[in-house]
Each structure stands twice: as C-alpha cells, then as structure tokens.
Design a protein that fits this description.
The protein is α/β, with parallel strands linked by helices. It has helices at 6-9, 20-29, 68-71, 126-142, 153-165, 188-200, 254-257, 297-316, 360-366, 372-375, 437-443; strands at 12-16, 34-39, 43-45, 64-66, 75-77, 80-84, 89-92, 97-99, 102-105, 109-110, 145-149, 170-175, 204-207, 222-228, 234-242, 247-248, 281-283, 320-321, 329-334, 338-343, 346-349, 385-386, 389-390, 430-431. The protein is built from 11 helices and 24 strands. The protein has a 5-stranded parallel β-sheet with strand order 5-2-1-9-17, covered by helices on one side. Strands 13-12-11-15-14 form a 5-stranded mixed β-sheet, covered by helices on one side. Helix 2 packs parallel to helix 8 (297-316).
Length: 450
C-alpha cells in the first residue's frame, strides 16, 4: 500500500470505539502508524454469540476477547467525551486530550440485554458480565412461560436458542409488523422461512401486535406478570425479554457534527466513508449511513478494510477507493442446528453457516489470538439435557445477592451490531481525494479522478 512508508508510520490515527468495525480497523493498521483505539471496555464483546451464552453454561468465555494482547500500547481504555474538529483533538472523560491526523468514528449502537451489554454495563467487567449471563440462564431454566418482545434478528435468534435447548418452554414472540425481520431488502420468502423454522420449534409468533403495558413489567424481566397487547390479548409470563431496537451511540460527535447526522443519529458519509465535508474524519459501522438500515458486523468489517486503505492512500496522495453497498444479505441462526440465509434474491433454509459456532473462531483469529475452546482442545459442547432441558449448573463463585448494575445511557465507543451477521459486497473503484469544497460535495455521489 502506498502509505506504508515512513510518512505513514508517523501519522496519528485515532479510532473511537472497539466494536466490530473499530477492532477490524485497528488490526489492519497496527504497527503501521501511530495508532490509538479508545474504548471504555478492556475486552471486545462478540455480541453475535451473546444469545448462546444465555443457554450454554460457560459460553461467555468465547465472546469476550481482550484488546491488550492484540493491540498492546495502541489500545487506550477510556471514554471519549468530545471531539474538536478545528484543533484535531479528542478529549477523554478524565480531561486528557489526544491529537490526531485522521479520526475514525466507530461508536456503534446500544441495545437491550442480552443482545447487547452497553445499556446495563457501560464498562464491561468480564466477571460481572459472565455473572449476568449465568443468572439469565438460571432464570430461563426456572421460567415456564417466556415472552420475547421484538421479532427482529435478536428476538428471532433468542427464541431459537431457548426453544432448541429448552423444548418444553412456552415461548411467545411478539412483533408489531406483519412479517418477522424488518427492512425492505428482505422478501416474503425469507420471512416465511424464518417463521416456518420457529413454528417447527413450537414458538408462538404473534404478528401485527404491540405490547402496551411495558411500564408494568418487571425491570429485569424476571417475575410473574401479565403481558398485554393492543389486540386485547393477555399473556402470562415468568420471564420477559425486550429485543426492540438499537440506538446509535452519537454523544461524542453530536456537538461538532449535528448537521451531518440523519434522523437515526448516524453520520452521513460519502462514498469514501468520510463524514460529509471532512477529509480527515471517517465513520464506520452502525454510526454511519453507508448501508442504510442494514447494520451488520460483516459490513462494519468491510468499512474498516476500505478506510484502512483510504487513510494510507490519502497520506501518499493517491486515489481513494469507493465503497459500494452490496445487495440484501443476512445470516440468521435459529438454535444450534438451523438457520436462514438470504444472499441477494436467493434464500437458503436449514442453513448451519452461523448456528454451529457463531463465528467465534473468526473473531479470535482476526485479533490474532487462540479461542479458549482451542486452547482447551475441543469445540464448544452443548449442555446435557434431562427431560428436554439442560442440567442445572449453578455458576461458581457467584453471589446471588449481588445486585445488577442499573441501566445507563449509551457509552461512546461501544461496538456494533445486531446479532445477525451478513455479507454485503464492497467493491473498490479509485477516485481522487477531494481537495476542495466542490469536490467534497460531489464525493457523496460518485468518485472522480482529478
């Protein structure tokens, strides 16, 4: 790459956020420049595998990957408070300021537990996070009636995990739209296959209904209650999961870039993934609008690879590469043995591409570390079942009286994604770096050579 010489080695690149996009970019740039990746956590959270941790004892060790062994001094644990575009600095919560030549915003999104952690545990402590998933497993074991609110990727996959490992449970999935998995890009064939697989697992699916008494439900979702819908239905529940929606983590850039944000607080980027009007500030993953409503871990990785190339090309004065979003693609796991994939117009049912190991090896490999299961010699094992449910396994060294952390606001630097992962294509076509305002304005439409 043209930026690989001594000039690039002295270039200061700051990445805010260590989710799927941020960590992929950091791994691509490590040892090539003066790199700093900022995140409040000390571990990468592989949330694609988070829902398996709700049903399999000990699975959490597979979904938390420490940053330090991968990035060394390039990783800075902290919270970015604000950015100064004119001064080209990032200010941290503790008052420290860091100067940059290039800034990459990879702040991701926040969502409800168990698909995400950042609303209940902004700074992920591995021991406490492990406890939370262990306690969730115990709650699932003891619940007879389980209600899941939200039929997007997280709700569908959670229903699949519980129904597969606990086939005796009465599980109801409530979704306010006419079909599961929102988004105009996914067709009826895909949604029909998803619904069919849930039907085979005996999950009760209520479509076109919305829960109307959320404020009356237990805050942690556990405890006997009645769930009411706008169709005047009342469901008895012992455990309720909220799987409704994600929110962009935008607080670090709102003050300086509020006029560059769309209605979902995502940053508008040009086809080089530069924030509109900026040549030294990029945005990737859930906090940018490059893929519209198709926010996925795979796409964040594609963004990271392109930005890694473009920063180096910019330093060397060469033509940038353009990002071209791919067609509709999604990989859903439905339990350990099933799943549905859409690749363009093609739909594959009963697909195990994701469901077997949830891409655990892929992300440990990305971070140049051996996964715990490999170190211990063997693949993750399914919990033994008795009468259709896993054996009760009380987590060791967990105080049952220890309180869960309260809900909090969205952190900066929290990583991406829905738990679904898919592959959109990004093809590189070269275009000259915009050197003036007119070129910057046109960059969002297409890349042109000087």
């Amino acid at each position: 790459m043209g930026g690989g010489g001594s000039k690039f080695r002295s270039t200061r690149v700051i990445i805010i956020g260590g989710g799927y996009g941020g960590v992929a970019l950091a791994m691509a740039l490590r040892d090539k420049c003066q790199l700093t990746m900022i995140d409040p956590k000390d571990h990468f959270f592989h949330n694609i595998g988070a829902l398996r941790a709700c049903v399999e004892p000990g699975f959490t060790k597979n979904i938390f990957i420490p940053y330090a062994p991968s990035l060394g001094k390039a990783f800075l644990q902290g919270r970015a408070k604000s950015i100064d575009l004119k001064g080209k600095k990032v200010k941290l919560d503790g008052g420290q300021s860091l100067a940059y030549d290039y800034l990459v915003l990879a702040t991701g999104s926040s969502g409800p537990f168990p698909g995400k952690l950042n609303r209940v545990l902004p700074v992920t402590e591995l021991e406490l996070a492990t406890e939370m998933y262990s306690l969730t497993l115990e709650k699932i074991k003891s619940a007879a009636n389980i209600v899941i609110m939200g039929g997007g990727a997280v709700g569908v996959e959670l229903a699949g995990e519980i129904a597969t490992d606990f086939p005796g449970k009465n599980i109801t999935l409530i979704h306010p739209h006419k079909g599961l998995i929102d988004g105009k890009r996914f067709g009826d064939k895909f949604r029909k296959e998803v619904k069919g697989q849930l039907d085979k697992l005996k999950v009760n699916v209520l479509l076109g209904e919305r829960v109307v008494n959320m404020e009356e439900l237990p805050k942690d979702g556990f405890g006997k209650c009645k769930v009411k819908t706008d169709a005047r239905k009342t469901l008895d529940a012992d455990l309720v999961f909220d799987c409704t929606g994600l929110k962009t983590n935008s607080s670090v850039y709102t003050d300086q870039l509020d006029d560059k944000m769309d209605s979902h607080d995502r940053l508008r980027v040009n086809n080089f993934l530069q924030v509109e009007g900026q040549t030294d500030v990029y945005a990737i993953g859930d906090c940018c609008n490059a893929d519209a409503d198709l926010n996925m871990a795979h796409n964040a990785g594609l963004h990271a690879n392109l930005v890694a190339a473009n920063i180096q090309l910019g330093v060397s004065g060469k033509n940038y590469k353009s990002y071209k979003p791919g067609g509709p693609q999604m990989i859903l796991s439905i339990g350990r043995d099933h799943g549905v994939t859409q690749n363009g117009s093609r739909v594959l049912g009963m697909n195990k591409l994701k469901s077997h190991e949830l891409f655990v090896d892929k992300y440990w490999k990305l971070m140049k570390q051996a996964p715990p299961t490999k170190k211990q010699g063997g693949a993750p094992k399914r919990a033994k079942t008795i009468a259709g449910r896993p054996e009760a396994q009380q987590p060791k060294n967990i105080s049952r009286s220890k309180s869960m952390p309260p809900s909090s606001g969205n952190p900066n630097g929290q990583g991406k994604q829905t738990t679904s992962s898919a592959g959109g294509g990004a093809k590189g076509t070269k275009a000259a770096p915009p050197s003036n305002k007119k070129q910057q304005a046109s960059a969002g439409q297409k890349g042109k050579k000087k």
